[in-house]
Amino acid sequence: MDMNENDRLFFEREYDLVIENGTVIDPKTEMRTIANVAVAEGKIAGITRVPLKAKRVIDAAGKIVCPGIIDPHSHADGQLFSAHVMANMGVTSIVVGSCGLGPYPVPEFLKGLDDEGYPINTAALTPESWILRERAGITSPYEAATEKQIAQMADWAEEDLLGGAIGVSFGLEYAPATKWDEMVALAKVAAKYDKVMPIHSRAGGWNSLEATREVIKLQEATGVRVLLSHHVYQCGQGMMEESLKIIEKAYRQGYKIGVDSGAYCDFACPVGSEVFCEGWQDIYDCTYHDILAGTGKYAGQRLTKETFEEMRANDPDGSVTAFVGKPYEVALALKQPYTMISTDGGFPNLAPGLGHPQSAGSYPKILRELVREQDVLTVMDFVKKSSWMPAQFFGIENKGYLGTGADADILIFDLKTVKENATFPGLGDPMAAPDGIEYVIVNGVPVIDGGQVNREVRPGRSMPSQTRVWRL
Ligand SMILES: [Zn+2]
Description:
The chain has 472 residues and is of the alpha/beta class. The protein is built from 14 helices and 21 strands. The chain has helices spanning 5-12, 80-88, 106-116, 128-135, 147-162, 180-192, 208-222, 231-235, 240-252, 280-283, 305-314, 328-334, 358-373, 379-394, and strands at 14-26, 31-40, 43-48, 53-59, 64-67, 69-71, 91-96, 121-124, 126-127, 168-171, 196-200, 225-228, 257-261, 268-270, 291-293, 319-322, 339-341, 410-413, 437-442, 445-449, 452-453. The strands form four sheets. Strands 1, 2, 3, 4, 5, 18, 19, 20 and 21 form a nine-stranded mixed beta sheet that branches. The chain has a six-stranded parallel beta sheet with strand order 9-10-11-12-13-17, sandwiched between helices. The longest helix has 16 residues, at 147-162. The N and C termini lie far apart (48 Å). The mean pLDDT is 95.
């Protein structure tokens, strides 16, 4: 063989890990081919069809080898059980602090993760609606912030961004008294550094179109990079087509917006939250019986007026699922070229047998249903929407693609057998691990190894954001 010195070094070296003969899918170059992926020191050292030597070889013949999944909307918030549940379905990185709820201050939270070790990579948003508002002394979601409180919250958000937060999040539905001035002040801080502002919009049901318009208006007014969070949960009660029209129009005008959406049409939220404000049955066109308890003493039961009110009074952080969605609107949202895939999963109070199947089933469900069975998405679409797009939108470097120098966050799965086993409490285990997810490698280390969780390893790293004043 005739080769130069660099090539000789590349081919003769012994790697930490080589993944052999898999069907390699790279969303950055849109390449799909059979190749060997070499890993050394937590990075991808190269991809080639020539056989390579390694301390460990994984045979991936017949399997898909793609970048690990980046979930742009998680609530795992540092919890270990949630990290293993997410890893089980192929997730190697998450963005937490969504919906205005999560750990704060972000720099301390990220440092804590790195000190303790965590199975997957984590970036964190500064949570506004629940956390900064509370810190500012606002005691009720129906209390408007004063000018002074708004200025204070903007200062805290800026400090957090400079310390490594990846953006600032709103959960407007949870804090109905959030006024336009408050939104603009916080958005301007995020925009100054070109950080993402994920927004759980103001309301679902028949209010959801106005809520979508409000998010787009915030982009227009401030230039901030907005992300419409878990869009199927906001508009998937029959308003999806209309909402997508509004978004498409904004795209045609060049607005800087993103959309994330998940695998399920029925959302989960804390039972004590403002989702169940005065008139919720009208807003969502539903009754008490459409609400399923996910945690607490009624877990697995449909609620009645009595049990709902008792749970809301005594267990306000308890999770419930509202069966108010239209299943066909899941695919409608996901097939749009601008939509990335998210879970809204991994709540900190998760435990075996409890919660919503989104935490353990989202990505395998989409692979089974929308990729394999219904041909709504191609495999390349899936990989792009679950890795490259979130990495690009949030500015996460070295992730979301397979190429020399990228972090070795890699998913190996079997497209012929992949399926979710998670289901709603009362019907089965919402935390059940899926089939077909064989290896999930984080910074070069398998966290899921031959389909099994390796609880001994914590190769995840925090992903503090580089923060610089935005300049074109
Ligand atoms: Zn939310």
